[in-house]
Amino acid sequence: MTLDPVILSRLQFGWVIAWHILLPAFTVGIASYIALMEGLYFFTGKEIYFRISSFWIRIFAIAFGMGVVTGVVMPFQFGTNWSRFSDITANIVSPLLAYEGLTAFTLEAGFLGVLLFGRKLVPQWAHFGSAFLVAFGTLLSSFWILSTNSWMQTPAGYRMVDGRFVPVDWMAIVFNPSFPYRLAHTVDAFYVTTGFVVLAVGAWLIRKKTFASEGKVMLTTTLTLLAVLVPLQILLGDMHGLNTLEHQPAKLAAIEAHWNREARAPLTLFAIPDQKAETNRAAIDVPLLGSLILTHDVNGVVPGLKDFPPEDRAPVAIPFFAFRIMVGLGLLMLALVALGWALRFVGKLFSSEWFLKTLIWSGPIGFLAVLAGWTTTEVGRQPWTVYGLLRTGDSVTPSLTGGDVLISLAGYALVYLIVYPVGVWFMARAIQRGPGDMVVPVGGGRPAGPVKAPPEMGAP
Amino acid sequence: MSIVPVWTLILGAAVFFYVVLDGFDLGIGILYNFAPDRADRQAMMNSIAPIWDGNETWLVLGGLGLLAAFPVAFAIILPAVYFPILVMLLALVFRGVAFEFQFRDAEHRHFWDHAFSIGSAVATFAQGIVLGAFIQGFDVQGRHFVGGSFDCFTPFSLFTGLALMCGYGLLGACWLILKTEGELAERARRWARAAFLGTLTAVGIVSLWTPFIDPDIARRWFSWPNILFLSPVPLATAITGLLWWRAVARKMEVAPFIYAILLFTLAYLGIAISLFPMIVPHHFSLEQAASDPSTQIFLGVGTLFLLPVIFVYTGWSYWVFRGKVRGDIGYH
User: Fold this and answer.
1) Searching chain A, which residue's CA lies closest to the CA of residue B310?
2) CA of A412: which chain B residue's CA is closest?
3) Which sign does the torsion angle of CA A356, A360, A361, A365 carry?
4) Which of A20, A39, B94, B145 qualifies as a cystine partner to A70, CB 3.0-4.6 A?
């Protein structure tokens, strides 16, 4: 068997981005949570918010450092492995990526130093401001990178000259058809992912008892946020789905493993899609529900994979199952939040051992959902890098041999398999230390007015 | 009117900022293993802890700037230096996480110390290979690199790799002279002198070697009347070198770093003079490789507005952490 540089380059890109995406999935959310805690500390003067913020800053520092170095890897992939893609799309894609660097990376990096190390050196408002700007930077980063990704999914505002894309309308390019939905859905996913991490840590602190008051604040603030964010996510997901139906019908058909175009279509809950035979095996269908969910109309027409030539279809099984995993995890998260609120109403949120344990175990749930969602959207749009216009096979660097890519893939595999477990282990250790030895700094960090007595402190 | 000259300046500046900024913190990594004790190593690490990732951001900005302004150059050069880029990225991952990991992990501190130091050295060496390969030029047909992925490893590019290690070591040592005091600063002066001599020798050898590789470069420098206009560059280099040596001998703290940056500026200028106006030597000029005017304007307007803003808040961050390294700021 000869080594195929296209397949190997895809594996490599999938590998480096799958690991990388786990970090923004956490840092985007936790940066906002830190800014929120710093804001509460700044405006109320209550030390408990200071301790919670400082605790998360330590963990954020590890995740952010890993995010920076694995993020630096990403733009170089476009050049080393996808040089044809770069040459053909650069006129459109490159400013979006460059604006991410100019607006987001520099902002994050500029204020991160002060956030991590500067509490003693600057006034409190400047530290809070730094926390806010770092959080804002992570959101700007999401804006530009998802605009880029969305343009590749639903290209707009371009014309073709000599086989290369040339910009015509920048507003149409940046705000391409799938972008608003993808941005909202992804950022909310990152917030929810972080929410479940904070819930898990809060629950763990409550069970450990040493820092129970901090744990309780984490639990209540986060549960309140998630009561909005999780239902909102389901709504956003639905809107994103309608958008996919309109602009990427072949992808939607693959996600639903739907082979024949039909009205009053069923929803396939489970099946083993058979790409060659163009059918599903062992299918469990619910009549009419497909049309109802996908078009919001029982008589709605749902596209089928057979509308598209076989060479233009995604490998159906992957998006089909990935999508079901994502939705299943989403519903599970909704149930957990509802359960949390029910316990809160009856006053048992902090005392229910089994629920606290469940929360601890569901800490990583959002990461799994993010990976499943990302797999759905990225495998679902195959075989295209620019949907309907540029094939993945035509995007790869022509000079690469399979052996070249095998070496680089092995390098990335080895390094990430060392760095990630160690990073997670350090974050776990930082969590185990708890928000203990956080002393409010004197000097620059001292609030202008007298600090109000923190009522939570010392309370049993 | 073409906006290409503006982009040439922006990209040239971005790459230069990267070289100087990440240059000194990679240089600290290279010197790190020479520091005998824990306290010195911690002080070295802390002198760059709040700023290193901002410095590394310029690598991304430089790369993306090349993609945005001169896409075909990006699409040719990166495949041509596939393995040096790979090695650089992996080394940067290791040395980047080592900042956070080494001080949290007393049991494996040895390992992370090495990850930081060797990672910095290897990343620098790889960048030097990229530079050497770039000066030598690539096999190109149409808009693609058609050579092999190992072509970039030549005696010349390996030498420029070593040269850059000396150069970054020089910047790192001068940063330490600026940021530390006492014994460590004294040690930094010794490192700086060694790195300085290495750098100057390497720059001299590269300056004589390149005209041999490439007759165009020889003609550029040695034909009449160019030799008259261009002789100030080596002259200024020699004078800056003397000023640097005197500043270190007089135990000045800021001046050595400034003069080291000036030396880098002159070497950079020398490379630019050799290659201008080509962005892919022998194949694509800056004008030929330029992206669509609409792309250059759309990004150019934002860049010219954002760069001053970035300088202001980056400057503020450096200002907050000004002065000598303090034991209570940074990892401790």
Assistant:
1) A106
2) B90
3) positive
4) A20
A63 CB-near residues (< 8 Å, 6+ apart) = A23, A26, A27, A30, A423, A427
What is the distance between the alpha carbons of residues A387 and B85, in angstroms, rounded to a whole number? 29
- From chain B, pick out residues whose CB is under 8 angstroms from the CB of A397: 79, 82, 145
ipTM of the complex: 0.89
Tens of pLDDT, residues A307-317: 889 888 889 88
Tell me how far apart the alpha carbons of residues A294 and A241 are, in angstroms, rounded to a whole number. 7
Q: Cβ of A98 and B148 within 8 Å?
A: no
Q: How far is A399 from chain B (nearest CA, A)?
A: 5
Residues ≥6 apart with Cβ < 8 Å to A103? A137, A140, A144, B306
Where do the domains of chain A lie? 18-245+309-445
Contact (Cβ atoms closer than 8 angstroms) between residue A416 and residue A16: yes
**A55-83, pLDDT tens digit by residue?**
999 899 889 888 888 989 999 999 999 99
Grouping H, G, I as helix, E, B as strand and the rest as coil, residue A457 is coil
Q: Is B27 in CB contact (< 8 Å) with chain A?
A: no
How far apart, in whole angstroms, are the C-alpha atoms of residue A125 and residue A128? 5
Domain ranges of chain B: 4-320
Contacts of A385 (CB under 8 A, 6+ apart): A82, A85, A89, A152, A391, A392, A395
Which of B57, B88, B280, B306 is the best mutation test for A, with the most CBs of A within 10 A?
B57
Q: Where are the alpha helices (DSSP H) in A256-401?
A: 289-295, 317-345, 353-361, 365-380
H-state helical runs in A209-271 = 212-247, 249-255
Q: What is the pLDDT of residue A124?
A: 84
Integer Cα distance of A195 and A215 in angstroms: 13
Hey, are the CB atoms on A404 and B149 less than 8 Å from each other?
Answer: yes
Instruction: Report the SS3 class of residue A282.
Output: strand
Q: What is the pTM of this model?
A: 0.88
With H, G, I as helix, E, B as strand and everything else as coil, classify residue B149: coil
- A387, A246 Cβ separation under 8 angstroms: no
Sign for the pseudo-dihedral over CA of A133, A136, A142, A143: negative
